[in-house]
Specification:
about 0% strand; mainly alpha
């Protein structure tokens, strides 16, 4: 009897350890994504885009890169569907030749298209 309880307690200990590691990993992700989640809760699309871009770039090349690229792509997709007045403008295009005029600000349709293209690029 004593021998049969030992494998069971070893299995329980292994299962408990695995669950602790699993939940510790989830807590870390929840902490890492807290700024992004708060941006969504406050309906600040501009802030959510900035947070997703920042985290995706910070995690580039690491074990969490895929996760943050998916977050970035989903956030940018949401931005492409949002009201253009709530979106931050895309990065300015600086002409290579100083004599070239600065391009005009994008229209709402162009802005939406820009975010849709960026979302697709994040998923690649």
């Amino acid at each position: 009897m004593i021998q049969s309880s030992r494998p069971r307690s070893l299995a329980q200990l292994s299962l408990g350890s695995a669950l602790v590691l699993l939940f510790a990993g989830c807590q870390t992700y929840q902490k890492q994504s807290a700024d992004l989640a708060n941006s969504f809760r406050s309906s600040s699309i501009a802030s959510a885009v900035a947070n997703a871009d920042k985290e995706a770039e910070a995690k580039a090349g690491g074990k969490d890169e895929l996760l943050w690229r998916l977050e970035q792509g989903a956030t940018l997709r949401m931005a492409s569907l949002a009201d253009s007045t709530e979106l931050p403008p895309p990065p300015p295009v600086i002409p290579k030749d100083p004599a070239e005029p600065v391009p005009p600000a994008p229209t709402p349709v162009e802005l939406s298209k820009s975010y849709a293209q960026r979302s697709l690029a994040a998923f690649e």
